[in-house]
Amino acid sequence: MRSARPPRTRPRWPGLNVLRLLNEPTAAAIAYGLDNASEGVYAVFDLGGGTFDISILKLSRGVFEVLATNGDASLGGDDFDQRVYCWILDDAKISFPSIEDTRHLLLKAREAKEMLTSHDEAPIHAALRSGEQVDLTLKIDTFADITKNLITKTLAPTRKALRDAGLTVDDIKGVVMVGGATRMPQVQRAVAEYFKQEPLTNLDPEKVVALGAAMQANVLAGNRAGAEDWLLLDVIPLSLGLETMGGLTEKVIPRNSTIPIAKAQEFTTYKDGQTAMSFHVVQGERELVTDCRSLAKFELRGIPPMVAGAARITVTFQVDADGLLSVSAREMTSGVEASIRVKPSYGLTDDEIAGMLKESIDHVGDDVQARNLREQQVEAQRLIEAVEAALAADGGLLRSEERADIDEEIASLRKRIAGTDHRAIKAGIDSLNAATQDFAARRMDQGVRRALTGHKVIELKL
To answer: Can you tell me the distance from the alpha carbon of 195 to that of 156, in angstroms, rounded to the nearest whole number?
Structure first.
């Protein structure tokens, strides 16, 4: 087995003492919440240069709680530049610009976009290396029209975030704008229309995150003069869980759970006499472990040998305020324990998180089918092993034709396990169970007789 990843502590950089990890939406909420003494549920609408993120936060009596997050990793201010660039090519009838001319026109497109944040029109003048001249004027209405579908693309993640938080638009008290792209009038207008209120824009959207982080750092450094302390409650962006038999993911802490958080779940052994258990900690929304992100592996040894399913192993997941995950496994009879610590978000960018969430949505149907198949395959294999062990121990209780029938059912179920129809496997499991009912009853009777042999009735305890 591969060695587990060593425990991670807070990251350290030369010359910097890291006191707390703070995500951007929470930092923006701090800036607005403390400056304006606001309380209630707020949406943080973050449209940057390359990505879009939406977060739903609850501010109450100094507590900042992230209720849900969502976004689009391939949507940002650069896409608006690209739309203006394409408009320039169409309007100026430029067919095949060179790389140098493309860069020049993209720069002009960005300048026009920025100018339109405070003007009704923007002149675009460019002399290209091809000898062509560009002399256009982009009006604010035209700009809004050619970028309309980009604005619409921000609304789907927004709706999903509200749904995950169990809220509606009417529950949102205010909308915080973050990122330079939120300066565009059509963005502010769309946000106002969707949330039925004007967004908060009294702080610089490009500086609001830095401002909130500085305010948090000020508190952590002990400079609380004139300000109350507050508590930050973040959420985990992706579910955390364990690999179970068949390569399936068992989620222990679902995504969007508020941290700090601790949850425990009980597992058991798969085979008789099993004295060790391997734990594979994974992160993601998919049903199969192969489609999730591996975080760490560790092993619990010293489990007392018991029949399969008798051992009780409690696995506890605990995520602290900095997002550090501790996983421990404890066998309840003997008290043996093993644990590991990891940083789930270490090395994972916002784009990768958004991509993993998108994949889980795109493959939800396939994942359900895959899980159903794996679950039935595991159950079928477990049943076959149990029946074969019983036959090896007490096969003499069966007549030859009865043994032949059971062997035939086992062979049939093995063939079904190799297929992809989970319903056929389930039918094979039911058929084998039915074929072994009499055998199981005889074994039970024989076990009772063995237990009674050599004892008087008066010696038995009821």
So the answer is: 13
> Does the pLDDT at position 281 exceed 50?
yes
Q: What is the DSSP string of 237-304?
A: SS-EEEEETTTEEEEEE-TT-EESEEEEEEE--SSTT--EEEEEEEESS-SBGGGSEEEEEEEEE-PP
Tell me the CA distances in angstroms from 45 to 56, 70, 115, 245, one per residue in order: 9, 10, 22, 41
Neighbouring residues of 436: CB distance < 8 A, sequence distance ≥ 6: 387, 390, 406, 409
Q: How many CB atoms lie within 10 A of CB 47?
A: 30
Q: Does residue 78 sit in the same domain as residue 203?
A: yes
Domain that holds residue 64: 23-225
* Pairwise CA distance, residues 211 & 377, whole Å: 54
Burial of 296 (0-12, 13-18, 19+ CB in 10 A): buried
Residue 438 belongs to a domain: yes
| Residues 323 and 380 grouped into a single domain | no
Domain count, the chain: 3
- 66 vs 44: CA distance, rounded Å: 10
pTM value is: 0.53
pLDDT digits (tens, 9 = 90+) for 385-433: 888 888 888 888 888 888 899 999 999 999 999 888 889 999 999 999 8
DSSP state letter for 328 = E
Judged against a pLDDT cut of 50, whether residue 226 lies above it is answered with no
230 CB neighbour count, 10 Å cutoff: 16
Residue 296 resides in a domain: yes
Average pLDDT, the chain: 82
The yes-or-no verdict on residue 269 having pLDDT over 70 is: yes
Residue pair 3/43 in contact (Cβ under 8 Å)? The answer is no
Instruction: For residue 423, give the amino acid letter.
Output: R
**CATH number reported for the structural domain that contains residue 319 in this entry:** 2.60.34.10
State the DSSP H helix or E strand holding residue 59, giving kind and residue range, or none if neither: strand 52-60
Cis ω before 260 (30° cut-off from 0)? yes
CA nearest to 233, candidates 322, 342, 350: 322
Give the CATH number for residue 196: 3.30.420.40
